[in-house]
Specification:
17% helix; 6-stranded antiparallel β-sheet; Immunoglobulin-like; alpha+beta
Length: 469
């Protein structure tokens, strides 16, 4: 929230400089005092839901907005974000409380004419619910709405809104977000509901109002419709057609769909993956030409789009990954990294350890081995190897002993399995201990065992470099 307020401040300062040139110093000083005083009076009326609180930076932003309202040229109110001349007429219909809810991504889309006013209302148990408007780009739909109850200002906390189709059914299994809410000076609760469709978004739907205290069907519905004309031809589709197989999973990227409110990496329709991976998938999109040992900005994935129909082997069809919009950016290339999809290269070292288990003696060893201890009983022969703990070597995996060993005559034998594994490993600040068991029988001494450790491991994520131009 603080980042958003700082961004707004930076943009509004441009307007302040323009206004400053058009009024005298005395008027400007009076305007600033007037704006700050109104900011203090209104600050107590604003609050954020979900446990967030307004910061001092937010109060400063509010005061700055009031300053602009007071001194803006031609005496007209400044509503929404700073506008270009080609879009001012469209954005004049955006209420300031709607603009206050918008992310920077939404603001850019609104500045390019994608906000459409709705202004339809219904009443639920004394609470008036109004759909103020819709921001849509053909794939993502954001519905801005307000609720007010003059008789019981807290009643609005019990209600929330979401989209349903024209048959009254919920759009299930689609990425959605309930936006931050605030209450303005008239005790009206403002919020938004955002949903991203896996295909082209509809141009009509129902806005459902439901109660947080009951699990029932929607208690009110408002039919709404909007036009597709504002965003016709705005989608940018970049063919990719890249494939890779990582850990026996095939990744096939078909294209990138870039719209004003989202960027979606689109997979081939038949890309199958484990449902657990689909649900928990996270990814990064590096911006610009990515090179080794060089810092690059990246954006994290927002949502994963997949078909919720469970296929064989608990798999689903992965359809896409949603990122923030790159529509208004000018990157030549982006690089996709999907968490957990990569290759692990390891460096191992192995050596033989020759032990006389009858005499408890080491015949051939490695410099790191300190001693060996043999314990005989009727059930097994316990072998415990003590090694010096390494301090400078990056050990990826500790010592493991191979299950098969040989005696003096070359005959092969196997270590006993204990709890499903051949050996046990422990360590303290100075020593590593490897323990395993042998069958309690007579062997041609000495015996040769092989120890292995991974001294280094490097993970390299699978990358998809995607040219955008």
């Amino acid at each position: 929230m603080v980042d958003r307020e700082e961004n707004l401040l930076a943009r509004y300062f441009d307007g302040v400089r323009i206004a400053e040139k058009q009024i005298g110093d005395e008027q400007l000083e009076a305007a600033i005092r007037h704006g700050l005083e109104q900011g203090r009076n209104l600050r107590g009326k604003w609050h954020l839901r979900r446990g967030l609180a307004w910061t001092a930076g937010a109060a400063g932003t509010l005061a700055m907005c009031l300053l602009l309202l007071f001194v803006w040229p031609s005496g007209s109110s400044f509503v929404g974000s700073p506008l270009s001349p080609t879009t001012a007429s469209q954005n004049e219909v955006i209420p300031n409380y709607v603009s206050a809810l918008m992310t920077s991504e939404m603001e850019r889309a609104a500045e390019h004419g994608l906000y459409q006013p709705i202004r339809k209302s219904t009443e639920v148990a004394g609470t008036k619910v109004t759909v103020d408007g819709v921001l849509a780009d053909g794939r993502t739909v954001v519905v801005f709405y307000s609720m007010v109850n003059p008789e019981d200002v807290k009643a609005v906390d019990n209600f929330y809104g979401y989209l349903i189709d024209m048959d009254g059914d919920i759009f299930i299994n689609l990425p959605r977000q309930s936006g931050t809410s605030f209450v303005d000076s008239k005790d009206v609760n403002h919020s938004y509901f955002k949903i991203t469709f896996d295909q082209d978004a509809p141009t009509q739907a129902g806005f459902a109002v439901d109660s947080r205290v009951t699990n029932s069907d929607p208690i009110a519905k408002i039919p709404i419709a909007w036009s597709s004309r504002p965003y016709e031809g705005m989608e940018k589709v970049v063919p990719v057609k890249q494939t890779a197989t990582v850990n026996r999973t095939k990744i096939a990227i078909r294209e990138v769909s870039i719209r004003p409110l989202s960027t979606i990496i689109v997979f081939e329709p038949q890309m199958r993956t484990d449902v657990h991976m689909a649900v928990n998938l996270k990814a990064k999109l590096y911006l610009g030409e990515k090179q080794e040992s060089q810092f690059h900005y990246y954006t994290r994935s927002k949502n994963v789009i997949y078909d919720h129909k469970i296929l064989s082997n608990n798999e689903v069809n992965l359809q896409g990954i949603e990122f923030e919009s790159l529509y208004y950016s000018d990157w030549n290339e982006v690089t996709l990294q999907i968490d957990g999809f990569g290759t692990l290269s390891t460096k191992k070292r192995s050596f033989d350890l020759v032990i006389d288990t009858e005499k408890n003696q080491l015949h051939a060893t490695d410099s790191t081995i300190l001693k060996v201890n043999i314990i005989h009983d009727q059930q097994s022969t316990l072998v415990r190897i003590y090694a010096e703990k390494k301090t400078k070597v990056d050990v990826g995996l500790p010592f493991q002993i191979e299950e098969e060993f040989t005696d003096r005559e070359g005959a092969k034998h196997r270590i006993l399995q204990v709890d499903g594994k051949p050996s046990d490993y422990m360590n303290d600040s100075t020593t590593e201990v490897i323990t395993f068991e042998l069958e309690p029988k007579t062997y041609a001494q000495p015996l040769t065992f092989t120890l292995t450790e991974v001294v280094d491991s490097t993970y390299k994520p699978q990358e998809f470099k995607i040219p955008l131009k």
